[in-house]
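name: query_chain
kind: protein
chains: 1
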Amino acid sequence: SLQKTMATAPQINFPATELQIKVVNGDEFVWDPLRGKYLLLTPEERVRRYAIAFLISHCGAMPHSIAQEYAVNINGTAQRADIVVFNRDIKPEILVECKAPEVKIDKSVLAQAVRYNAVLGARYIILTNGHQHLCVERTEADYKILKAFPKMEY
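structure:
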């Protein structure tokens, strides 16, 4: 049955977002309005849904500028960036790496995102497991930690 519900446990450290969830054979699926289809509601997918809602509501990202599971070629191997937000010049501006809530945001997660960003060249990287968030900005020499999420301007 189709039901609109506030996402329940685990708690997520993002503003409340209403997720459209349906249950099929005991599995929960969440509606993805950007891709226009239901996706299996894994812990990482729940974090992605909240992160996208936050990027739109608080960071000014336009829904049409957001790509999910964006292909990134790392040394001949196809990888996927969880979320990429493009700027008005259709260049990657924000790379978001989403992890399940139990996955700690640490140096290995940052290293994964930095590898992706060596190909993408986004100005900002956001790492999130729904509880912890780390935002960094790419500088000429390195990455610097930001105190707040970046804002998009079109």
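note: The chain is about 20% helix and 40% strand.
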